[in-house]
């Protein structure tokens, strides 16, 4: 996959301040505040920074966490996992495989068939209806 490498100035020009904070500084939006938490439309969720397809709405479910949750990425190579020891916790951070932007975290407490919960920030996603 081709990587998208931009300078911090280019990222700041391309993203809103909230997007920049979450996607480039690994921030988190408030629980239940994101526009895709309760969103139910059929389509594909793309990276808000580089437009890579990340998640299919067919794999979205209501985890009750306050963030959009998915059982798996749209493709095995769409999202990369990274050990995150910030905030006194050990978690697995999920990043976009193309631009290395922070998306959220993945937890081992999801429903079948994967048992995973990809807990994503709405601001890191861009939804596009299925054609």
Automatic annotation (TrEMBL):
<feature type="binding site">
    <location>
        <position position="47"/>
    </location>
    <ligand>
        <name>Zn(2+)</name>
    </ligand>
</feature>
<feature type="binding site">
    <location>
        <position position="99"/>
    </location>
    <ligand>
        <name>Zn(2+)</name>
    </ligand>
</feature>
<comment type="similarity">
    <text>Belongs to the MsrB Met sulfoxide reductase family.</text>
</comment>
<keyword id="KW-0479">Metal-binding</keyword>
<protein>
    <recommendedName>
        <fullName>Peptide methionine sulfoxide reductase MsrB</fullName>
        <ecNumber>1.8.4.12</ecNumber>
    </recommendedName>
</protein>
<dbReference type="InterPro" id="IPR002579">
    <property type="entry name" value="Met_Sox_Rdtase_MsrB_dom"/>
</dbReference>
<keyword id="KW-0862">Zinc</keyword>
<feature type="binding site">
    <location>
        <position position="96"/>
    </location>
    <ligand>
        <name>Zn(2+)</name>
    </ligand>
</feature>
<dbReference type="InterPro" id="IPR011057">
    <property type="entry name" value="Mss4-like_sf"/>
</dbReference>
<keyword id="KW-0560">Oxidoreductase</keyword>
<dbReference type="InterPro" id="IPR028427">
    <property type="entry name" value="Met_Sox_Rdtase_MsrB"/>
</dbReference>
<feature type="domain" description="MsrB">
    <location>
        <begin position="8"/>
        <end position="130"/>
    </location>
</feature>
<feature type="binding site">
    <location>
        <position position="50"/>
    </location>
    <ligand>
        <name>Zn(2+)</name>
    </ligand>
</feature>
<feature type="active site" description="Nucleophile">
    <location>
        <position position="119"/>
    </location>
</feature>
<dbReference type="GO" id="GO:0033743">
    <property type="term" value="F:peptide-methionine (R)-S-oxide reductase activity"/>
</dbReference>
<dbReference type="Pfam" id="PF01641">
    <property type="entry name" value="SelR"/>
</dbReference>
